[in-house]
């Protein structure tokens, strides 16, 4: 029996180590995304151009911004539907902690030691870890660039949201989409910039004074098949800051129920 248990434990450990190594690579990638996002925001908001002028002049950078948001929402949707990620990582942490108490060190700790495991644990504890990283990066960008009017950042985000909404709801644009992946790309980018806007704007994206047409954006999402947008609607419900503020109309709350 002891041999059988040891064999099972060894198999479980050998199975979980490659998964933890992969989780580490995604965590480190999130740090690179954070730096990239801040650089892109600086390029897309710096004077003397208005947000729309920036997006027209710097289309390649705007596309990279959109690609980051697309990946972020894709990753977080997968993470939310895979609870095994945190279960496996919790098992890994318990194992290395138990071995440390026994003055043993496992080979896997050379790649993911206790300090790294603690940072990764905080990252994966978030419901939407990549989006949380980008939201924090955007907030930090605004707070550190005090000479840059906050409107320069929020106008850039609201302009991108408007462009995506128009592309999704206008037949002339929709007929150019050759596959559903393009529609999903636009939806993810739209939701991503709405969430970033809501984190950095003083009253958020849902207030009447918001420059984002939230009713139109939500309506566009709800016109799509429910299996492709439920994760995006949940992101608006649970990762925004101002949805439950008094300034949010009952109609918008009802749309997101």
From TrEMBL:
Q: Where in the cell is it found?
A: Membrane
Pfam annotation, one family = CYRIA-B_Rac1-bd
Q: Where are the transmembrane segments?
A: none
- Keywords in UniProt for this one? Lipoprotein, Membrane
Entry's Gene Ontology cellular component terms: membrane
The CYRIA/CYRIB Rac1 binding domain, residue ranges: 10-253
* Main localization category: membrane
GO function terms (MF aspect) = small GTPase binding
Gene Ontology biological process terms in this record: regulation of actin filament polymerization
The UniProt entry lists membrane topology as: Lipid-anchor
The record's comment on protein family reads:
Belongs to the CYRI family.
Protein name as annotated: Family with sequence similarity 49 member A, like
The encoding gene is LOC109875903
